[in-house]
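Final report, Chapter 2: Outcomes

The project's central promise was a pipeline that accepts a single protein chain and returns its three-dimensional structure in a standardized token representation, suitable for archiving and comparison. That pipeline is now operational. To close this chapter, we reproduce one record exactly as it appears in the project archive, with the input sequence first and the structure output second.
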Amino acid sequence: MPFTANAGFHADPRMIERAEGMYYYAADGRQILDSCAGLYTHAAGHCHPDIVAAVEEQLRTLDYAMAFQFGHPGAFELAEKVAELTPDNLNKVFFTNSGSEAVETSLKIALAYHAARGENQRTRFVGREKGYHGVNFGGLSVGGIARNKNGFGAGLPHVHHMRNAYLPESRFSKGQPEAGMEFADDLEQIVQTYGGDTIAACIVEPIAGSAGIFVPPQGYLQRLREICDAHGILLIFDEVICGFGRTGKAFGAHSFGVTPDIITMAKALTNGTIPMGAVACDIALYDAIAAGKDDRTIELFHGYTYSGHPVACAAGIAALKVYQDEKLFERANTMAGKFCELVFGLNDLNIIRDIRSYGMLAGIDLEPGDKPGDRGYELMQACFDEGLVLRTSGDTFVLAPAFIAEEDQLEEMISIIRKSLSKWAA
């Protein structure tokens, strides 16, 4: 089982048999509130009838179409709808099957772009401490979470990391911390050490999600954009978690007012119904890669068997329509204030070490016990017993409810967490 303590699970299984709206239903029939929208996937809640119907209909008409040298209308329709949401000229879309594959694709596109412009020496990538960019070797390499890398070798060569942009004095900040913009100058230091003309791209999450919701300091992303522009480095935003309304707008790029050259996405792209990821890149990158090639030459030697899968495309088209028709991005933006207020209500507990929140995302650190990670694991188990699915990583837990959440459901989440923490908290 992925990212699971298998022995512990088999000793005390947490089995889920069905889902609807804001709730899972356990094998014993109990209703379990979902505090993380699947895994940041279900912005519109579980088993939305419009998305289910679209998938069912697609399976009756076209279950698969080979994407190598052939196409189908759904892929082009979904690409157009994604391009309507992405900022500025990020209008060329490449479909993958996951966020991990989207990151691999973005790195390849960056290399292909520089090679097409005669800059084959640009082979370095810059990531960030605590960054999560999936589990394939490219993503592991640019990612900055040590335990994900341990045991899997050195990864890609020529990868460098900036520090996590977070200061101790920023603890319990609501929204963007005021201090810490200077962390962006880590990129300039890497440029000065290795040469800007050797760096292909810098990849960051607008908000570092899997590490525990680290919100960028004011001016930080803008400064990264300035440094990249000054040295011809591509800026990649990994928006697998932030994308599709989680920050209150379509993408984190919109919320923070910074346009990257490439955006990766997945999860809520199909409302989690069918696995799918995508990469959106600036049209200038596409044009450079395609320039001078005739109509029988493959421009980018890359792809997946299930790229642009018809059923996934149907789910994506339906999901984006649901988001629009039900105004879920706007709802997320409206609910964010109340969500933040409820989450920060936990700061009276002495077991809480830090709280960070932005949009419909929150990360809460616990004071560790004798063995790091044990309290987080026990909290996850206790919450499940009390009727809540909780996403924990080490001694940090994350809240990312679906945008359809009602205020009383958000209150119930916090109430269950508070009760489950009572064994440690004063």
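Archive annotation: The chain has two domains: 6-48+327-421, 52-325.
This record, like all others produced under the grant, will remain available to the consortium after the project formally closes.
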